[in-house]
């Protein structure tokens, strides 16, 4: 009995070491993606083409980290044969890294627009609104990773709720762009660019929310069963709709 | 030597049976999500509140299938201890089911709008444009699942390319809505609803593209390294931008 027990102990600690190494990679990846979100928003606001280029180049590292994490997850599963909770942790990490990679993609996409926006005339308030939105998503991502590390379902649930704010910000920006475009058709192209950026940020928020749900699932073993708060709900509100409904 | 070999054979075939059962669940889930995409678009076009309600109710089954698939994947990994390609197949299925669930969410979201749209005046051509877009995404999803089953990286790559068409459709619809809104402000609320629907469909296309990339990764063991074709690219085109740039 005793050798088996010590064998078991050996396996557990080897798994722990592997998991720790993988988690370190995820945290590094998360840090890079957080920075990419903030940098791409800042590049946009200050029309800093050089910083935007840095974000675009940096996405390669994020992509490489995803591949590395996936391989390490597969290797650890194959070698250590984890079961139950240990296996679920690895499967969660595997999904989180996929979402992180996509958030990074959207940040890169946002950065790519900076070089076009330098040629457009600025719209009052639009850039700072987008930066605030990006900042909120970055904080959500930070908290999601913290929630993962601390196995804190409450914090993850908090993130999930905050996605609603991001969606509200998106809706507010969308309405503002509409006004700009109707005021002066020369604003249309610029607004469309900025709208695509807002859409990118909203989508990042969506991905981060999904990550938070994965964390909740990991900690509580069940998915939040009320459907996720969707900012797209706003337009369901009849009060809002009734403004323009007098046809 | 011979007993070990037969033991190995036994393990392999048990794994195959498990995998087959999981794949059957994925295909069922895929079929339900395909139907949800088409039904929600049709409900929208024909203002069929009852059909929309059916889509919303049906999403519960999709969610349950995801949970079931995840559990079966984890169970199979834990019990069969698959390695290398077998393990990669299961990890791919695990990710595909997550994306499928989210596509289903967007279809449900789309269906939810039908009840609001019945109160709006219709915009010429908008509903059929959205239906065509939804139809394209449904076909992409069908081909992605076929590509998975047949391990056909070429077909998956074809899906990936077609996401560009969906994004182009989105951009065309977006521009059309802009025109409607500028022509008559009473169109604004209706257009905003329809725009959210177009955005949902585009996002489904995005998720399906991501699924296609997972299939490519499974078959070829590497991610397509040129970044995914993004319809958001359209506005990068200077020719298009130059129209309104004379400020």
Brief overview, please?
Chains A, B: This is Phosphate-specific transport system accessory protein PhoU. 2 copies of one chain form a homodimer. Chain A has 7 helices and no strands.
Structure explained in plain terms:
Chains A, B: Plays a role in the regulation of phosphate uptake. Chains A, B: Residues 224-247 are annotated as: Disordered. Chains A, B: Belongs to the PhoU family. 2 copies of one chain form a homodimer. With 247 residues, the first copy, chain A, is an all-alpha fold. The first copy, chain A, has a single domain, classed as Methane Monooxygenase Hydroxylase, Chain G, domain 1 (Up-down Bundle), CATH 1.20.58. In chain A, 83% of the residues lie in helices and 0% in strands. The first copy, chain A, has 7 helices and no strands. Residues 1-5 and 229-247 of chain A have low confidence and may be disordered. At the A-B interface, helix 2, helix 3, helix 5 and helix 6 of A face helix 2, helix 3, helix 5, helix 6 and helix 7 of B.
Reconstruct the topology from this structure.
Two copies of one chain form a homodimer.
Chain A (H helix, E strand, L loop, with lengths): L1 H45 L2 H32 L3 H34 L8 H25 L2 H31 L4 H33 L17 H5 L5
Helix pairs in contact in A: 1-2, 1-3, 1-4, 2-3, 3-6, 4-5, 4-6, 5-6
Give the largest interface pair and sizes.
A-B, 59 and 59 residues
> How many β-strand runs of chain A?
0
Distance between the termini of chain A: 82 Å
Which architecture of chain A per CATH? Up-down Bundle
Gyration radius from CA atoms of chain A, angstroms: 21 Å
The number of helices of chain A is: 7
CATH superfamily name of chain A? Phosphate transport system protein phou homolog 2, domain 2
Low-confidence stretches of chain A: 1-5, 229-247
| CATH third-tier fold name of chain A | Methane Monooxygenase Hydroxylase, Chain G, domain 1
Q: In terms of structural class, how would the helical and strand content of chain A be classed?
A: mainly alpha
SSE order of chain A, one letter for each helix or strand:
HHHHHHH
Question: Beta-strand percentage of chain A?
Answer: under 5%
């Amino acid at each position: 009995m005793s050798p088996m027990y010590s064998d078991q102990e050996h396996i557990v600690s080897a798994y722990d070491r592997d998991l720790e190494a993988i988690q370190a990679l995820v945290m590094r990846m998360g840090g890079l993606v957080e920075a990419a979100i903030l940098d791409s928003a800042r590049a946009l606001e200050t029309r800093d083409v050089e910083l935007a280029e840095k974000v675009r180049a940096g996405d390669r590292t994020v992509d490489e980290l995803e591949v590395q994490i996936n391989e390490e997850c597969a290797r650890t599963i194959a070698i250590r044969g984890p079961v139950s909770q240990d296996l679920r942790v690895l499967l969660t990490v595997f999904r989180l890294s996929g979402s992180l990679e996509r958030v990074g993609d959207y940040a890169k996409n946002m950065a790519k627009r900076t070089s076009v926006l330098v040629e457009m005339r600025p719209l009052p308030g639009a850039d700072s609104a987008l930066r605030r939105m990006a900042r909120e998503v970055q904080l959500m991502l930070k908290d999601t990773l913290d929630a993962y590390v601390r196995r804190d379902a409450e914090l993850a649930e908090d993130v999930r709720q905050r996605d609603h704010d991001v969606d509200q910000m998106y809706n507010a920006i969308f309405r503002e762009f509409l006004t700009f475009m109707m005021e002066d058709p020369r604003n249309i192209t610029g607004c469309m660019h900025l709208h695509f950026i807002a859409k990118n940020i909203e989508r990042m928020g969506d991905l981060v929310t999904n990550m938070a749900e994965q964390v909740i699932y990991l900690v509580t073993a069940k998915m939040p069963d009320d459907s996720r708060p969707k900012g797209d709900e706003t337009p369901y509100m009849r009060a809002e709709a009734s403004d323009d409904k007098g046809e």
